[in-house]
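Appendix B: complex inputs.
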Amino acid sequence: QQQVKQSPQSLIVQKGGISIINCAYENTAFDYFPWYQQFPGKGPALLIAIRPDVSEKKEGRFTISFNKSAKQFSLHIMDSQPGDSATYFCAASWGAQKLVFGQGTRLTINP
Amino acid sequence: NAGVTQTPKFQVLKTGQSMTLQCAQDMNHEYMSWYRQDPGMGLRLIHYSVGAGITDQGEVPNGYNVSRSTTEDFPLRLLSAAPSQTSVYFCASSYLRGGTEAFFGQGTRLTVV
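Resulting structure:
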């Protein structure tokens, strides 16, 4: 059972455009929603995270939008750059850190 | 600080062989976990530990064993390798309280032939 569903699987965006990746979850007990960025040959690294008591969190060009009633959250990358080309994973957890990951999105930013 | 260190980086096994993937962290994190990453399936939790001497199963534990004798080390053992265990394995660590950043190692790419 996939508790966190992520879409799209792959995404191509022009440089300077907005990249949007969506996730939906099922377990209403989840209380922490991070996004991880992974470059080829590397382990995932935390990009940005949000708790369900806020609807949006912004860090630089990266924004998480959170819709608790719809059980959905999304990552927006503004002014996308070639260096943002990577695989992005949404995740969710409750209590102490049993992270459940989405399937991943391979993002390509064309120069 | 080295963070989370995994060895080896690459490994080829024959079906039926056993091996241990090593994971060590130097951040004094209580929580450690092992994930496998397969195309289109994200990262799936194999086993996790909330402290020395305490381990538990994750989503896909079959064919794997773990132990946690120290805070720093969390090895993953493949008892009898099967082609279905061909994957990239990641170890992660974090503080035990929820909502804290999980730090991942560089991964071990395992091929079982």
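The interface with chain B takes residues 4, 6, 9, 31-32, 34, 36, 41-46, 49, 51, 89, 93-104 of chain A (CB under 8 Å).
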